[in-house]
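TASK: fixed-backbone design
INPUT:
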């Protein structure tokens, strides 16, 4: 039996170190931050991450550690709408 669990989340990239191939994502739901690894980015077709990027991801929890999987960047307009925007900023 495993203590593995998977949930869906959105959040913000706190930092990503391309040299080390690791970063941290804070979840919008206030849960503990998730680690993200370069292998996940490659598997999901994401070229790179930068601090402040908004992402949708699955949270895999195993052995008490939270890791982001199945990650996708949120488009800028969707990010803006999710943050309560009332007028399209590109109009």
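OUTPUT:
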């Amino acid at each position: 039996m495993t203590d593995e669990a998977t949930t869906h989340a959105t959040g913000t990239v706190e930092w990503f170190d391309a040299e080390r191939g690791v970063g941290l994502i804070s979840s919008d739901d206030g849960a503990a931050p998730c680690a993200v690894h370069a292998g996940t980015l490659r598997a999901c077709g994401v070229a790179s991450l930068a601090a402040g990027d908004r992402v949708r991801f699955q949270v895999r929890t195993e052995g008490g550690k939270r890791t982001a999987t199945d990650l996708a960047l949120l488009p800028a307009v969707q990010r803006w709408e999710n943050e309560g925007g009332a007028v399209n900023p590109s109009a």
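COMMENT: Strands lie at 5-17, 22-27, 34-37, 54-62, 65-73.
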